Amino acid sequence: MDDKIPNESHFDSSTVKAYTAEELSNEGSIGDSTKPDDIVLVDCRNYYESAIGHFETSVRPNIRKFKYWPEYVDKNEDLFRNKTVALYCTGGIRCELGSAYLMKKGIAKEVVQLDGGIHRYMEKYPTGHFKGKLFVFDNRQTVISTAGGDDIEHQDTANRTNVSAASDTGSDRNEDAAGGNILSRCSRCQCLHDEYTVCENEGCSLLILVCEKCRTLAAPSKVVCCDSCAESEHGRCTCVSQRQRVPTEV
Ligand SMILES: [Zn+2]
Ligand SMILES: [Zn+2]
Ligand SMILES: [Zn+2]
């Protein structure tokens, strides 16, 4: 981890105030479209996590790794300056590290973090302000639907044969769920789609959104993230080499 981010043992979490799921859910609160302008809600997760699920009023940094957080803050000081910055992440850990860096910079009026992260929020408010799916790390991609708390799917990205087989009815499911809970799109046909797979070019570990129909169309070619991954087994793909590592928000 980047040495600018203090590790947990160096961080005194008692210095950062937590805000609760309730505070995020009430009308006029942080998660509501009527939130006051001096509060900025920031998603501390990586772009591929926030792409498939987020609080709509949040700023979602287009960064691929959390280690770029300090650089993101440095580049976007005005986003935080004199604001109450409310951070959220999956379970709360990254907020602690993220808020520590913000506090050290001393530009925000106040830094608060969501107690228990999106996890706890969704337990309490499965149909609340959090829209889409929650992406969970652990070698597996766990997608938890917000539409009813018991609709939980597990996807093992290391075992995509099974995922594909299980997704044969995926288009139906997408149509059903298209009532608002899929926020992202297939990178090829732009249909609503939020199930990640890994680029099939060995050596490229990018998570990609490619729907079942486009996978079928691509067969027997590998399903890859970009042309350079289709052409070469080594070297940097254009997705990585052409994207800005740390964006400046407008
Ligand atoms: Zn598609
Ligand atoms: Zn690739
Ligand atoms: Zn690529």
UniProtKB/TrEMBL annotation:
Pfam families: Rhodanese, Rhodanese_C
Residue stretches of biased makeup (Polar residues): 158-169
Transmembrane stretches, start-end: none
Sequence segments annotated as region (Disordered): 148-177
InterPro entries: Rhodanese-like_dom (IPR001763), Rhodanese-like_dom_sf (IPR036873), Rhodanese_C (IPR022111), TrhO (IPR020936)
PROSITE patterns in UniProt: RHODANESE_3
Domain Rhodanese: 35-130
PANTHER family cross-referenced by the UniProt entry: THIOSULFATE SULFURTRANSFERASE/RHODANESE-LIKE DOMAIN-CONTAINING PROTEIN 2, THIOSULFATE SULFURTRANSFERASE_RHODANESE-LIKE DOMAIN-CONTAINING PROTEIN 2
Protein name: Rhodanese domain-containing protein
Species of origin: Sphaeroforma arctica JP610
